[in-house]
Write a structure and sequence with these properties.
heterodimer; A: about 160 residues; Ubiquitin-like (UB roll); DNA polymerase, domain 1; five-stranded mixed beta sheet; 5 helices; B: alpha+beta; seven-stranded mixed beta sheet; 26 strands
Chain lengths: ~160, ~750
Amino acid sequence: MSQIHVSTTLNGDPVEYLCEPDETLLDVLRDRLGLTGSKEGCGSGDCGACSVTVDGRLVCSCLVLGAEAQDREIETIEGVAQGENLHPLQQKILDHAALQCGVCTPGFIVAAKALLERNPDPSETEVRYWLAGNLCRCTGYDKIVRAVMDAAQEMRGA
Amino acid sequence: MLDKTKDPVAERDFKVVGTRPVRPDGVDKVTGRARFGADISAPGMLVGKVKRSPHAHAKLVSIDTEKALALPGVKAVVTRDDFAENKKQCDVLRNIMAREKVLYDGHAVAAVAATSATVARKALKLIEVEYDVLPHVIDVDEAMKPGAPLLHDDMITKGVDPEPETASNIAQRYEFGHGDVEKGFAEADVVVERDFKTAAAHQGYIEPHACLASFTPDGQGELWCCTQGHYAIRGFCADLLGMDISKLRVTASEIGGGFGGKTTVFLEPLALALSRKTGRPVKMVMSREEVFRASGPTASTSSRVKVGATKDGKITAGEAEFRYQGGAFKGSPVQFGAMCAFACYALENVKTVGYDVVTNRPKQAAYRAPGAPMAAFAVESVIEELAVELSIDPVELRLINAAEEGDQSSFGPTFPRIGLVETLEATKAHEHFSAPLGPNQGRGIASGYWFNFGGATSVSLNIQPDGTVALAVGTPDIGGSRASMSLMAAEELGIAYEKVKAIVADTASLGYNEVSHGSRVTFASGLATIEAARNAKKILCARAAKMWEIPEEAVEWVDGHARPAGANAGDFEPMSLADIAKVAEQTGGPISGHQEHNASGAGASFATHMVDVEVDPETGRAHVVRYTAVQDAGKAIHPSYVEGQFQGGAAQGVGWALNEEYIYNDDGRLENPGFLDYRIPVCSDLPMLDTVIVEVPNPGHPYGVRGVGETGIVPPMAAIANAVSAAAGVRMTELPMSPPKLLKAINAKKANGSA
């Protein structure tokens, strides 16, 4: 089978690549484009470590084909900070020590950002259910939930 | 509470230690820059994949790689024939690549290196393996029975006198204790005896095992991998590949969770062997399915516990037998289980026996306080039942019998200063202790113990010309330890935290460092960091003395400055670390401090957990609604990361208690090798996890530090079982307490009640 040519927008920039028909978006990001911030924790959509948004919709990039990104807008963890300025979610995760190993952290940030874009004032329960697709084995989620609630409050005030 | 006058450590006023700054590796981890095991590539890199056994137990008759090697893009295949017999690493060798037999579903039989993952996967299918399938055994009790399928024909049980004449699946028997338990039970007014079972749980780190190996034609190797101990990996790999240790340089990547599971080798020797054969870098990454099937979960266990007490709550005897299966090779953590089981209590009569058993499952790997949680689940469940029978509050019952300084532990040594009583007092004082419960809710309490380790440690602290400090440690950072190391270095040197940056150095850059395990890092690397800083301070003072032309003894280090030690020493303006560093070239050259030692004096950490669980009587679902973890940290260097350890241990305990288990079918194949069916707690499963940091200083550390990483998983299963029991009115003795099991117990109780 020949490779497929894809034109897409990645973190605001136009990008072109060739990929296998059965190659996931996650593999394209990591292996072809060098964006290793999205992680493969399971490859089956159960852990959320590969969370990205496609046209603003939160997805597991291990469940999306690279070919499906044609004419879409893809946002990854690498596009969350603006230059030297961290996103409030990134800063609050650091301030609350809401990470231990940090391998799930990019997925949590991408997922939480998608939540706050839809719901700037989520309840603790809403945060917990929205983030239920992102597994963290280190923290017990306590500090992550607090960081997201704190970031939401700061973003509402800003 | 603490008497500070007796305690120079507790009296000390810390300036930096105890604050909560952002960790040195923080920004890298929130922006996606941090490079974990699978995040690196090399020019000309090949992809390595492993062919694994579909059988639980079979003779490995033949392996034919011819067709695979003929596939375009395939560069090499390795099998058992590529690894020499190794008496020293006999089991490790057989675990990374099956030899005479495959011993579990997922056991590696061959590995291939190819130009792409697609080609490698195709090649795996072309490797032809002939098996002679044998009967298998999965359950620990079944494996111990006479006539059970034997894994190793030559396994003669150790620790039994006289030595058995025939082979069995029991690798070793252990016994601990003192006094006379029969006499103790005779003195008891109440005796509770129960049987318990726990399922195998996986560490469940989110990052699968991954490595990149590169071997050059002159026999030098480089390895990048996610590991808790790159020095240990170097040792295993050099041994298995028959090379000098100094020719293999291992760099620890950022590690995406380990919890004990990344303390040994799986892919690493295979990747090196493939790289040696091809002369090209080889990258290998496990799938999640491979992580479950072929890396080590913890042991599943079966046990019997018997405890007797007088009417006023004094425990007169404790006795237990533990049977742990640790998978296909000897080395289950039953010894630790048997040692920790009664460690919380000062007992006159105590006896524990442990059996290390092999079964057709992946070889277990360490999992957070290995062996202790299963024993604590059993013992602390019985203690709770005893409290109910005696109508004594469970915390009071524990206080009556709690181990304290000077008591002989149930496994032998006498305890130095420990903080169990303080955790129990703090639990009682917590608002949660007396908070009202809702309908179908119950509260459970349990305590736990873990030894904590020290061990071989090397640290180098380099003072830079601009007055900042580069601190190199050799213990991979699995939970924020670089922040703790930087805090301790800053505290000792009297400079700002921001002036210190800690890194994890590779195996060529520092002396040997034991694995990041045993809750040892903040204690042992911390101790070495403090000593390294003290050594650097001596040099800083000597340099100031040289400039001032006074004797070295006349200079002291106070508040980050060298200054004359007294009026007689002379009148000189104190010099800061930066002042001295700036002119170091003129006063004798670069300044650094280092320390190499075997750290001893790791203080044990005790914890008491309190949990409220709500049980749905219609579905059998148990839901944790409130949780408080109280633990002795000795001294919390970075309190947020200490809390994080307590919370993480509690959350893993919730999973082990309520959901997680390895499920095997009749053919001995693992049925749930994925996060959908092996369900670890998700965000919506848990409430906030309250923590109380108790600080009873460890006399073995200058700041009083006790390791905190592991104890937090010891009490949760018992605490949750006790809460479930209180909520549902049924005593659950088997983990996990999943909805079907709990519902069955509730319905059985209803049926008995109406009968």
